[in-house]
Amino acid sequence: MDEHEIALEIAPQGRDGGSQVLARQSHGNEEKKKKMGALEGQCFPSGNGNGNATGGWRFSGLLLANQGLATLAFFGVGVNLVLFLTRVLSQDNAGAANSVSKWTGTVYLCSLIGAFLSDSYWGRYLTCAIFQVILVLGLLLLSLSSWLFLIKPDGCGDRVTLCTPVSTAGLGVFYSAIYLVAFGYGGHQPTLATFGADQFDGTHPKEKSSKGLFFSYFYFALNVGSLFSNTILVYFEDTGKWTFGFFVSAGSAVLALLIFLGGSSGYRYVKPFGNPLPRIAQVFVAAFRKWNVIVPENGHGLYEVEGSQSAIKGSRKILHSNELVFLDKAATVTESDMKVHHPDPWRLCTVTQVEEAKCVLKMMPIWLCTIIYSVIFTQMASLFVEQGDIMNRKIGKFEIPAASMSIFDIFSVLIFTELYRHFIVPIAGRVTGNPKGLTELRRMGIGLLIGMAAMMAAGITEIARLKRVTPYEKESSLSIFWQSPQYILIGSSEIFMYVGQLEFFNGQAPDGIKSFGSSLCMASISLGNYVSSILVNMVMEITARGGNPGWIPENLNAGRLDRFFFLIAGLTAVDFVIYVFCARWYKSINVDNNEEVINGEEMQKH
Questions:
Q1: How many other CB atoms are found less than 10 A from the CB of residue 405?
Q2: CB-based burial of residue 397 (10 Å sphere; 0-12 exposed, 13-18 middle, 19+ buried)?
Q3: What three-state secondary structure class fits 303?
Q4: CA nearest 190: which of 135, 109, 248?
Q5: Above 90 in pLDDT, residue 577?
Q6: Least crowded by CB within 10 Å, which of 115, 197, 460, 512?
């Protein structure tokens, strides 16, 4: 082993779990640097959690209103898109379901783009503003294209009047518009969630509690906004007034943008931390270059900078962990590192930098296990709607739009949000000893189980629907309200899964990639939509052989949609077993203030 492969043994520092400072800077202005560094990442205009004129519930309330209105605008397009594609653009059921899955997947995939720009270059505020402008432009273009090119004759697409075939140019404008909507809403969502959390000081006990509560209200506002879309707007669109519905959505997006800009003088701002990709890449490159270096036992003597601030501007230091220890090679100091005044960042990284990379890797297995739940979630916007569209939708003379059944999901979310806070948390807290009631990891596991039950309920409903199909009739005599259990179950599961995801990924993400943490929740929905599309294609490819109609044919009465729902339930059961293993393995992030952001080890203790 040569001098480049000899790890220096340096006395342990103690409190940081084994990190040792390697000082190479001039110390004349060290105290000044520390004070300035503490303010460099976070820029709170005045005060703190006590009597502060900025941030807090006053201004986060504006962000919640913005969330509700932006969601109303988005779901004004998304909730009935599958019927628009079948009725106006004449797509078949499987094709429309795939189109919606791909579009919805693109929406949430764009969340990664927004998160990257927010964390790296633009900051939360500017990112939110820019993507909301894109959302407004997309909705205006969709409204105009619907008015000028798509809805011909007026009122078509109402189950009675057929629309004339759309020109290639019209289709091009339509798809450009809806993917602008996808890009705008996707980039805006996770950044807004993180920006809202920024309005509370996590070091202040009262505001730290409010920050956790904000994520529940954030999801609550999302569902309040979608309530209007899933009732009133859906009714107008279902009766052929598509253009009116799209213009209302555009107006809601404009109002959301104005409310957001109205709070500009009072928000708390966090400056971007720089591009995290080079930082993470440096860890892997440095670890590879020191592959033969022996890491000091228990992380003693690993490289870290002096002072309270880390080498990542504005970010707190992260203490050393004993997982993924092969990456510790990147922070292991060798003789060659000691010979240079400024260490090569592609050869020697700080403990905080290494732990940032570890955090990303440790979150990945948990994140991957949430994708199958998103496959369940996406059925509400596609196959649930197609299933409900051929059920008995009449109450007297009034005909219920199939997409309006999602109000059961929305009310379930609104009700279970309060039930969880006021009943489940206190009871679970007494049982587990955790003041939060249930850890985020446990909540996500419960969400998976409830989601699986929702797919079972959907399959049972489909069996009952098929039994009540009259020969040569398109619609079953089974009431559409038989769908309510599957919607209610999904709504209750969202409180456990998606709110848990928001808190978990935002809390476990290091300071420099908070928006990325929030975007993982939406990226899960994105991949869930793509996986759903792949599943539909695979199932049809296998089951439609030999002249068979397949499980999801154009005429669902000739198919076996129930088997598709049961297939998803089976995949969820397998996923749950894998998830439990990953959750037990997971260890939480530990920042320099000796405060665990989220107790990721609770699942191991009970």
A1: 25
A2: exposed
A3: strand
A4: 109
A5: yes
A6: 460
Q: Characterise 101 by phi-psi region: left (phi > 0), alpha (psi -120 to 50), beta (else).
A: alpha
Question: Which burial class, exposed, middle or buried, applies to 381 when counting CB atoms under 10 A from its CB (0-12, 13-18, 19+)?
Answer: buried
Element (H, E) at 355: helix 351-369
Which amino acid, one-letter code, is at 262? G
Q: Which residues of 559-585 are buried (b: 16+ CB within 10 A; e: fewer)?
A: bbbbebbbbbbebbeebbeebeebbee
- What letter would DSSP give residue 325? G
Calculate the alpha carbon distances from 20 to 16, 302, 305, 494 in Å: 8, 5, 8, 43
- 10 Å CB burial of residue 179 (0-12, 13-18, 19+) is middle
For the stretch 100-114, pLDDT in tens is 878 887 887 788 888
CB atoms within 10 A of CB 225: 26
Stretch (H or E) spanning 197: helix 168-198
Helix axes of 242-262 and 56-78: crossing angle, nearest 10 degrees? 160
Q: What is the pLDDT of residue 603?
A: 37
**Where residue 314 falls among pLDDT bands split at 50, 70, 90?**
low
Written as one letter, the residue type at 501 is: Q
Q: What mean pLDDT is predicted for residues 341-357?
A: 88
Q: Are 82 and 96 in contact (CB under 8 A)?
A: yes
Cα separation of 391 and 403, whole Å? 12
Beta bridge partners of 269: 43
CB distance 352 to 383 below 8 Å: no
CA dist 146 and 161 (Å) reads: 16
Which residue type sits at 450? I
Phi-psi region of 152 (alpha: psi -120 to 50; beta: other; left: phi over 0): beta
For the record, the structure tokens of 442 come out as 């446990």
- Cα 124 from chain centre: 16
Instruction: List b or e across 183-199, with b for residues whose CB sees 16 or more CB atoms inside 10 angstroms.
Output: bbbbbbbbbbbbbbbbb
Residue that has been written with the tokens 């900051």 in this structure: 123
32 has pLDDT over 70? no
Distance CA 252, CA 524 (A): 26
Asked if residue 234 lies in contact with residue 404, where contact means CB atoms within 8 angstroms, the answer is yes
